[in-house]
Design brief:
Helix content: 25-40%
CATH architecture: Roll
Low-confidence stretches: 1-17
Structural class: alpha+beta
Bound molecules: succinic acid
Distance between the termini: 43 Å
Strand content: 25-35%
Number of helices: 7
Largest sheet: 5 strands, antiparallel
Radius of gyration: 16 Å
CATH topology: Hypothetical upf0131 protein ytfp
Order of helices and strands: HHEHEEHEEHEEHH
Number of strands: 7
């Protein structure tokens, strides 16, 4: 039986859905909630803080290619479906001319277990009217690198000792927390892990 998590991405996991994203000639919106918040590293024409509903951000995805290795995975964030969840991040508008190259770049960067999905993003802090449909990369519980829940103490410890080709896992967690704070967003899970890392002398 499909779980809530399975159902939430079932349409976008279809490869033909990806083809229609590529073929679309409208500007593309990409919603980043992890490293894409503080290091987009792709061409965009506009960016704005935004929030999505129905998901919570959790350090539940194993990273074997960026912040860890196959034998010692780090932990990065993914979105977990939760009815009352809210997740702040950054929405980027990509011009039609850059759509194909940005999608190819992001598919490669997020290849360690993330799949494309579609979310509605409410832009800005105060405005309620500006909503856009955005592409987001989600690592579900069906990918081989998925680690799932653990206590925040265990998560912080795994982050503290992990290191991968993109650098220390600590950098990922602390830069994400700093970027969220800078945009005025609150994420208790991310901030709890930041506090544990700082208490352990990191940062
Ligand atoms: C994202 O940032 O939106 C995807 C997850 C990651 O690369 O950290």
């Amino acid at each position: 039986m499909a779980t809530t998590e399975d159902r939430s991405i079932e349409g976008s996991a279809d490869p033909t859905a990806n083809q229609s994203v590529e073929a679309d000639d409208r500007p593309l919106w990409v919603f980043g909630y992890g490293s894409l918040v503080w290091r987009p590293a792709f061409a965009y024409v506009d960016k704005c803080a935004g929030v999505i509903g129905g998901y919570s951000r959790r350090f539940w995805q194993g990273s074997t290619d960026h912040r860890g290795t196959p034998s010692a995975p780090g932990r990065v964030v993914t979105l977990v479906p939760e009815e009352t969840g809210r997740c702040w991040g950054t929405a980027y508008r990509v011009s039609p001319g850059h759509r194909a190259s940005v999608l190819a770049n992001l598919d490669h960067r997020e290849r360690g277990g993330f799949v494309r999905a579609s979310v509605e993003v409410r832009l800005g802090h105060e405005r309620v009217a500006d909503r856009v449909e955005a592409l987001v990369y989600i690592a579900t519980n069906r990918n081989p690198n998925y680690l799932g829940p653990a206590s925040e103490i265990e998560i912080a410890e795994q982050i503290r000792i992990s290191h991968g080709p993109s650098g220390p896992n600590i950098e990922y967690a602390l830069r994400l927390a700093a970027a969220l704070r800078e945009m005025g967003a609150v994420d208790e899970h991310v901030f709890a892990i930041e506090a544990l890392l700082e208490a352990a002398g990191c940062g």
